[in-house]
Each structure stands twice: as structure tokens, then as C-alpha cells.
Write a structure and sequence with these properties.
Blueprint: E1 3-7, E2 10-13, E3 18-25, E4 30-36, E5 43-48, E6 55-57, E7 65-70, E8 75-80, E9 89-96, E10 112-113, E11 117-122
Parallel strand pairs: 2-11
Antiparallel strand pairs: 1-3, 3-8, 4-5, 4-9, 5-6, 7-8, 9-10, 9-11
Length: 123
């Protein structure tokens, strides 16, 4: 059974930075970050391959966010730079057992989810 626990959220001003972490247990393979703002659907932000060599980003965060992983520490990261008020959301770590199609950013592709960590960006 895979368990995921996010941390690192907080409140920052527009233009600021945060680094999110997700501690994982079990066989996580492909992993991703999602976010959900109030009244909106959950959306994929970034995905990473099992070894961490390949990544995929949503257009809205390309060039500002960076996903990475340290498999020795069983930890997934998301560096958030140049934050905007529209980045305000609950951020979730997700994992799936598959090793193919790492780039998927659709909710249905992921089996396991963390509880989320809140990111709030003020203007």
C-alpha cells in the first residue's frame, strides 16, 4: 500500500517561492503534482518518470515550477517560483503503479493521493 504525505505549503506574496515535498512509502513509480482551487476541478501540474529523468508540465506553470524526486529518500518535490495569485490552491501529490506514460496529468491515471498542502498567493 502506498502512502503519501505532503508538506511545505504556506502563504506568500506574488512573485515569491515555495518548495513542496511529498514523503512516500511503498512502490510509487510514476508520480505527479496536482492542484485544486475552490470551486474548480483538480488539475495536473507536473509529472515525473520513475527515475526522474523525464518531466511534463502544464502550460500554466511551464518555466515557473520544477518537479524532481529523490528516490533514495522516497521524496517528491515541487519548486514553485514566480508565484501568482492564480496559483492559490490545495496541492496534492499523486502516484501510480504503472511505469509507462509517465507524462499523464489526468486525475484518472493515478491510484494514490496525499491529503494535500495549501498554497496561498496574495497580490
Amino acid at each position: 500500500q502506498v502512502q503519501l504525505q505532503e508538506s511545505g505549503g504556506g502563504s506568500v506574496q506574488s512573485g515569491g517561492s515555495l518548495k513542496l515535498s511529498c514523503a512516500a512509502s511503498g512502490d510509487t513509480r510514476c508520480m505527479a503534482w496536482f492542484r485544486q482551487a475552490p470551486g474548480k476541478e483538480r488539475e495536473g501540474v507536473a509529472a515525473i518518470s520513475p527515475a526522474g529523468a523525464s518531466t511534463n508540465y502544464a502550460d500554466s506553470v511551464m518555466g515557473r515550477f520544477t518537479i524532481s524526486r529523490d528516490n533514495a529518500k522516497r521524496t517528491l518535490y515541487l519548486q514553485l517560483n514566480t508565484l501568482k495569485p492564480e496559483d492559490t490552491a490545495m496541492y496534492y501529490c499523486a502516484a501510480r503503479s504503472a511505469t509507462t506514460a509517465f507524462q499523464r496529468l489526468d486525475v484518472s491515471a493515478y491510484n494514490y493521493w496525499g491529503q494535500g498542502t495549501q498554497v496561498t498567493v496574495s497580490s
